[in-house]
Write a structure and sequence with these properties.
Layout (H helix, E strand, L loop, with lengths): L11 H6 L2 H4 L21 H17 L3 H10 L4 E6 L5 H12 L3 E5 L13 H11 L2 E6 L4 H10 L7 E6 L5 H14 L10 E5 L6 H10 L6 E5 L8 H9 L3 E5 L2 H4 L5 E4 L36 E3 L20 H19 L3 H11 L2
Helix pairs in contact: 3-12, 3-13, 5-12, 8-9, 8-12
Length: about 375
Amino acid sequence: MLKRKYLHEISWNDFNALSPLEKAPYLVQANGRPYHVLVAQQFDRERLDMLCDLATRIRTIAKSRMGLNFLADLLCHKHAMLDFSQPSSRTFLSFYSACQYLGIRIAEVRDSSTSSEMKGESREDSVRTFSSYFDMIIMRTPLQGFVEKMAWTISNTDRPLPIINAGSGKDQHPTQALLDIYTLQRSFERNGGLAHKCILFCGDLARGRTVRSLSQLLTFYPDISMIFAAPDHLQIGQDILDSLDAAHIHYEVTRNFKAAIPKADAVYMTRIQDEWDAKPGESHHFNMDDYSFTGADLNVLGRNSVILHPLPRRQEISTDCDSDPRAVYWRQVRNGMWIRTALIATIFGRDQEITHYYMMNNK
């Protein structure tokens, strides 16, 4: 268990200068449960397994009316703000549904033009205002580092509250990584688990925050290997490769996606993140066919392998693949709701109560 440190005991400049792993002790509660959820590196293998187990218990409990009523009573006294200043439907609705399952009352801001920011209020002051009304803030923003800055800021007030990073700039998307791990665990639970598996990432790896976060969590699994397939200008960042080297993880960097498919136990496709282009179309200087998964590619994919995608997709996965049982990207969507429900319940200390209910009703 991480030895807890306190955000009010460190300056913002010093905290901001820490590596993601060094920030982890500042993001937990005294009992080891997560408090702020900002980076993938704050989770270890034990906590990942606990969250995945809890998510499965919650989805089982939710199958009955009695179970739904139990869940909805757990946090009916809590309020959450969904502050999504970056466009999102999937992640927003996933968190919205997770809160609903736990009885949390929800408010939302999805368009800054409807807030006092149109009057000149700063983003920082807007979030400080939200913290006066709610017990949790779930935040998605195009501003890199902003979620971390607000977590530090709110922790240094007389009313601290947990903040969850639902996507921050081109940096991290830790809860997407959680749902990806949960999907991979469930996909391989009858096939030896995640150990000894090869994960192939393809697409815009330079700016795809889902890949940055997931690659870190995968390092906890024995003999895992990774392949990063992308055009040179969209290839994975050196900082990620350095962290994999430090963890003694085997990886391969390639431009030849098609040749890597037969090696993969899981293919993780991503779209081109051209919303980050400085000039329109600058990221499209390559043949998209070379980095797309088609119906023909199913013929060389392993029989027990799976295809994932954080969505939304464009043309990087053919709809011909949708009916193949190895395509699990639609399951990812639902898994995201369950793992986020488990995460929120854990932050508010209801995990043991859920486990007790599950054990008493599933003997």
